[in-house]
Amino acid sequence: MNDQELKMDIYEVAEAEYGLRLDVFLSDKESGFSRSQIKRMIAEGRVRVNDAVVKPSHPVKSGDSVVLTREPPRAYAVTPEDIPIAILYEDESIVVVDKPAGMVVHPAAGNYQGTLVNALLFHCKNLSGIGGVLRPGIVHRLDKGTSGLLVVAKSDYAHSSLSAQFKDRRVRKIYEALVHGDVSEESGVIELPIGRHPKDRKKMTVSRRSGKVSVSRWTVAERFGYVTLLNVAIETGRTHQIRVHLSSQGYPLVGDTVYGGAGKKLREIRDATPRSIVGRLKRQALHASGIGFCHPVTGQCMEFSLPLPPDMASVCSDLTEYVTKKNC
Prior knowledge:
By secondary structure, this protein is α+β, with helices and mostly antiparallel strands. The chain folds into 3 domains: 3-70, RNA-binding S4 domain (Structural Genomics Hypothetical 15.5 Kd Protein In mrcA-pckA Intergenic Region, Chain A, Roll), CATH 3.10.290.10; 86-167, Pseudouridine synthase; 173-292 and 302-327, Pseudouridine synthase (2-Layer Sandwich), CATH 3.30.2350.10. The protein contains 8 helices and 15 strands. The chain has helices at 22-27, 35-43, 116-124, 156-167, 241-248, 262-267, 272-278, 310-327, and strands spanning 7-12, 47-49, 52-53, 65-70, 86-90, 94-99, 147-153, 172-180, 187-191, 194-196, 204-206, 215-223, 227-234, 286-294, 301-305. Strand 10 (194-196) and strand 11 (204-206) form a beta hairpin.
């Protein structure tokens, strides 16, 4: 392996990150690696702090330079699977898909089959290798329970271009979110930093100490009294951003068992009929309905949109019918 095959990620420690363990610091950087993977990389000497090899528990200091050396892409270890996927657009550089709720985007520990990547490898045959063995072509992600639009890179050039657009906040991302409660305002902006939860590393939380800048803009799309449908545009793409932001305002997503207290919120709907209707949603009610970006090769502005998926649409339709009859 020569130096030209290696890719290095360089991070500078901010004042707010002073004292964090090295492995925690890197896992918070959304580098695409889990904390266990980062620990292994540190043990292998592929992570240096100020050009020195240290332990995973090493506390970083303000101004430290942390360099993570990635391995070059290897042959795909993921098995292509003949899984139907809804493709909205495809050319030699990109493919835009409609990911259904319940499908994981890429393989991870304990979940190596049935993912979007398995389906894409069967359909596309060749995907960008920059994302690594388990994430070929993946530029951004949606949670398992979230449905909607994803753009995938089919070449390394497209992957680099799209990644830069996401990093520079030049990608337009619109979501539809069904939340508990009758939202008091018609629109608003949530600007709260998001970081890893200090006790549960699988969760995110609002953190003014170590969180990253996060901005979500929302408007009311439709009111049902018991729940509200919001149109949400995110300027940043933090993990679980919409779920954390809306929950912090007292309007958690319907069906969100992690940030929403789904069972408790459902029981707070006293009328049996709307409670039954809302209770049909067995996943967080979040749908990536719009995405806009520049084509990595042609530079053309690409815009894609999707209506609500059947499960969310039927709930909204039945709630509208119930509220209309009740108010007559």
